[in-house]
Design goal:
The complex is a heterodimer of chains A (114) and B (115).
Chain A lengths: L3 E4 L2 E4 L5 E7 L5 E8 L3 E10 L2 E4 L7 E3 L5 E6 L8 E8 L9 E2 L3 E5 L1
Parallel strand pairs in A: 2-11
Antiparallel strand pairs in A: 1-3, 3-8, 4-5, 4-9, 5-6, 7-8, 9-10, 9-11
Chain B lengths: L3 E4 L2 E5 L4 E7 L4 E9 L5 E8 L4 E4 L2 E6 L4 E6 L8 E9 L8 E3 L3 E6 L1
Parallel strand pairs in B: 2-11
Antiparallel strand pairs in B: 1-3, 3-8, 4-5, 4-9, 6-7, 7-8, 9-10, 9-11
Chain lengths: 114, 115
């Protein structure tokens, strides 16, 4: 049981390049989330999903797109990376039931945009 | 918009002391509140989750309380150890028609336990 995994762990991009971050969970959770963590700003929600095929915007969605084609995977895309997107990105998942409401986090992806 | 504040921002205490970390939030209509720890360069580890109908939760040396009406939560750490050194984050989840809003986080308390 690996929990929540993220790929890649580190990445350096040039301004204007695109990339996709992959999140996978093996806990059969319905809900999945993408956050970014910046010094002095804390963690902020980018997008989230309440189930396969559904996505919704969080607090800071601009410049990102997401897809949830399979229940266990949640992809975060940057179509044209900007230096302001330099951050550490965390994926999380949780169940729908009250007893499974705890959010479990992946180890993070450290992204630098030059 | 929900805002979460954690006080103090940093704390350094000798090993063995009992300590309290504070969290406050501006909108009391929360669904639940969760405490996490984060070690440098690592992800977040969930410590305790308190549902809006609960007053406290305990796990080992940790005890978290919730006073929803006043918008406050505290994390009590008993008999602190050097291994408790980390950043502690408080986060709240709001009610949503979709039932699954993400968490709103405080900026954390950076805790150092001196051996």
């Amino acid at each position: 049981n690996a929990g929540v995994t993220q790929t890649p762990k580190f990445r350096v991009l040039k301004t204007g390049q695109s990339m996709t971050l992959l999140c996978a969970q093996d806990m059969n959770h319905e809900y999945m989330y993408w956050y970014r963590q910046d010094p002095g700003m804390g963690l902020r929600l980018i997008h989230y999903s309440v189930g396969e095929g559904t996505t919704a915007k969080g607090e800071v969605p601009d410049g990102y797109n997401v897809s949830r084609l399979k229940k266990q995977n949640f992809l975060l895309g940057l179509e044209s990376a900007a230096p302001s997107q330099t951050s550490v990105y965390f994926c999380a998942s949780s169940g729908r039931a009250l007893s499974t409401d705890t959010q479990y986090f992946g180890p993070g992806t450290r992204l630098t945009v030059l | 918009k929900q805002e979460v504040t954690q006080i103090p921002a940093a704390l350094s205490v000798p090993e063995g002391e009992n300590l309290v970390l504070n969290c406050s939030f501006t909108d009391s209509a929360i669904y639940n509140l969760q405490w996490f720890r984060q070690d440098p360069g690592k992800g977040l580890t969930s410590l305790l989750l308190i549902q809006s109908s609960q007053r406290e939760q305990t796990s080992g040396r940790l005890n978290a309380s919730l006073d929803k009406s006043s918008g406050r939560s505290t994390l009590y750490i008993a008999a602190s150890q050097p291994g408790d050194s980390a950043t502690y984050l408080c986060a709240v989840r709001m009610y949503s028609g979709g039932g699954a809003d993400g968490l709103t986080f405080g900026k954390g308390t950076h805790l150092i336990i001196q051996p």
